[in-house]
Amino acid sequence: MAVIKEKAEFCTLLVDELYGQLPARVYATLFQRGKLSTRLISQFSKLSPRQVKNGLCVLQQHNLLFYSIDANSGEAEYSVNHEYAYNLVRAGKILEMVDNSYGPAGRDVMQNLLLLGQTRISDLVAAYQAKINLANDENAWLNDKKPDLVIKSKAQLNSVLCRLIEAELIDVVHSKTFKSVHEIEKQVHKEVMEFYFPNGMKGTKAKIEFEQKVAEGLRKVREESKTLKRKLAQNGGASKRRKLAVGNETNGAPEEEEDLDPALDPRQVIRINYEKCIVELRSRRLVQYVNDTLGETTGYVYGQLLKQLTKNTPRCRPDPLMDTLMSDEEKQTPSVTTNEILDKVKTSIDLTLGIGKIPSKSISKTAAERLTPLAPRDKIPFMNQDDSDDDDEDGDYSDSDEEMDTKKENGDAPVARMSRPEQLRQHLLRLAESQPGFVRHCGEDEWTIDFKPLMENLRATELDSIIEQTSGRQGLRLTRILRTKGKLGEQALQSLSLMRKVDLQQKMLEMRLAGFAHTQEVPRDNKADPKKSIFLWYCDTEQAYSSLIAKCYATMVHCLQVLEVRRQKEKDVLSLAKRTNVKGKEKDMMRDESYARFAKFLKDERLLMAEIMRIDDTLALLQDF
């Protein structure tokens, strides 16, 4: 897969920032030259073979490489795994997400996997056991404070790993993990041809069957990383094991929760599954959108809905080859009922919050309860921007504040009389009626989410927000005119926008330089004289996205470069702060001038990293969610 230059440069700087200069030089050489053997990497990077092997070991340990054996020479050839490399920047967000969902113990395990890369379960258990033994050794902490361990036993570690594996946040490393998608596809093609079509393909029907067999083979390869999850499923899920434990406890046989989970195979090698992590990050982002637009209570309800709908969603975007040729049953969008959501909502949550207090006679129940059995197809998010809200043109049906106060005093407030399931339905109906389409009311008491049109709407909103920040309200208005009307000449655009010619030309030039507007030359005759040609303005949304993505990567590269310059400038102060007798006591041990420089560097570092995180939010929405 082709990678834009800015992304390659950012990934190289990120590897340098995290793992040092040697792995970064090897990584940069592979990014620039493509698939190479160890000998060629040494030749192009000017590193010795030993240095190259050390760099490759670090990169492969952290899943940043693909490799394959050349059939002719027998040499191993390496290429970069750019998606894993870029996802390193999301480590902090992933840890925060795991902390919120699985507690400090889950965060600690994920943090160690981020630091160690792919790890054998037995090695991970041994590392934690050594830490536990050290913490329990009283002689080792005579003069120091004894640390408070997050993981206190092997059973607890095994339980946490089981939770993370069942959630697919941790995957198993298998024989094809380090093969690129192209190599796996090539191998599956060969196997399908040899097994099913030894005499070749003839006709359209055979070609369709061939594509289906290839998709099935690729899905089998993809499922090899879920072997541990399938073994855990054979013993029942976590909730089922807890229910059995409760039954045993009532029969007089109490059992610790950590002891309920089966012991994992210590020989298995595990790693973080970034695809599933991005699914969870998308859910958090959507909940934040709902919190900002519809309130925190509705956002909480939406979060519970997302948890149930995405628990079996392995990735945000389906693979164009593997996931488009599935059966109709496999393609069916999952849905949940109101009662299933209500079972997950905490009883301490007040569902009356965030629901409008309007009498039932003022609400059209037919419109509110309207079902949408089918997902919207080919929805264009920009076409509804000029629609006006005419909900109140027939009159204002809501009660005044005095009327509502009177109803409350008489105990006649509609929300207070609702049952808890009905209150939950009101939140779900609000989500279904929202402009982005957060939820679809797909059945009598069923709800689902159409992620593709929803994310298209949110991407469109994000693009409009960036255009407004960059080119102002006039720039956004011109963009919407061009989207609605299509390609326009300057005179027609001036007539529709009601702007002066000079102002229009200046604004359109500004937007063209920003990548939000484009021009097309239409010759008047066969000579194609530019002086006699017509130039039409238009907006290409996909080009705008591509331009914006490239600028985001370029800005992130600039942030890391500025950070490195600041680090070199304050090199003497940073080396002083790293000394063992100074670390942790910088303010007391360093002179005022040195400490002021050190504090200023830390502040600048936080600001630059916060800027990178903010830009990553935009990139995730534009290309990952």
Automatic annotation (TrEMBL):
InterPro entries membership: POLR3C_WHD, RNA_pol_III_RPC82-rel_HTH, RNA_pol_III_Rpc82_C, RPC3, WH-like_DNA-bd_sf
Keyword Nucleus: yes
Region (Disordered): 226-260, 369-419
GO MF, one example: single-stranded DNA binding
Residue ranges of every copy of the RNA polymerase III subunit RPC82-related helix-turn-helix domain listed in the record: 10-68
Superkingdom as given in the UniProt entry: Eukaryota
GO biological process terms, semicolon-separated: DNA-templated transcription
Keywords: DNA-directed RNA polymerase, Nucleus, Transcription
Quaternary structure and partners: Component of the RNA polymerase III (Pol III) complex consisting of 17 subunits.
Family to which the UniProt record says this protein belongs: Belongs to the RNA polymerase beta chain family.
Protein name: DNA-directed RNA polymerase III subunit RPC3
UniProt organism field: Sordaria brevicollis
